[in-house]
Amino acid sequence: MMKSATIWLSVGFFLCFCVYPPAGAQTTFGSITGTVTDQSGAVIPGVAVTITNAGTNAQRQATTSETGVFNVPNLAVGSYRVRMEAGGFRGQERTGIQINANNVVNIDAQLTVAPATNEIDVLGVAPVIDTETSTLSNVKTARELEQLPLVSRTGGAHGFYAYTALNPGVSKLGQTQNPAVNGMRISQTVPTIDGIVVMAYAGGGGGPVQPSLESIEQVNIELANPGAEFMRAGNFTVVTKSGTNQFHGGAVWDYNSGALNARNFFSNTTPFRVFNNFAASIGGPIRKNKSFFFVDYEGSRDSARQVLTGNTPLVPWRSGDFSGVRVINDPRTGGPFPGNTIPDLLT
Fold it and tell me: Which residues contact 66 (CB under 8 A, 6 or more apart)?
């Protein structure tokens, strides 16, 4: 009887796991949408649209609707090619379309009547302004983040969180890494890393969950009107790097000594300090056009001597004689101690 109950309980858990919908999460994907028309401005339904990731050659297909509109969501951050083909028309291909996190790119196209031989028009695309949403955002890529004037790349120097303070309307809260966007409380600004909400951040500790700068592909801070899936008035999304069909990587070593540091007021010499911050990354294909890898490591070593200062009581003070200082009142009576001494409180 016990064995039968255990079997049915296991089956029940399995069925619940299969049919229960997965929990929703914040997205880091972008979308490409657009309308295809002919030279007269009439919409063209049934146009085959192929969207190709330039880094991995992953493809997505779509077909324009009766109104000539196509929409391809859930596209990873990266550069894309869009190819549009329809019977009786010259095909058209757009290249260099950059998709950012939570970005909607509109690519409208006008196809011309095909000649006797099929041809494809290849057009480069200028930087696209997001006109599909009301979100106000600012995107910084890995190259731009690496050029930030940071003392070091570690969490103690704020790392990629330093970028948030370079946006209009953003300020820091005291000595923390937490940004306040347009005067909002920190609980109203929560970061996501690859679509996962950093819950520890709301308590004021952004540093422990900070990824290496070497692993970051881009940071997108939304200053106003973020998508409903974020449930916050402000948000910034971090997307980490991934492998492509080309091997790529990098290495960095930052050495900092105390040779140029200022002398502490209470020290006769400049305190000794040696700081090393180092990182490396590499990514590439495991199987071309199929699977990819990316790994990174970042560490730091800090060796330093510190000058510590403290208040040391004078010899008379240790025996309760405070005659050399201003009058000290007895907290029990409110009046001054006889002779300005408090030996009874020390025993």
Answer: 43, 45
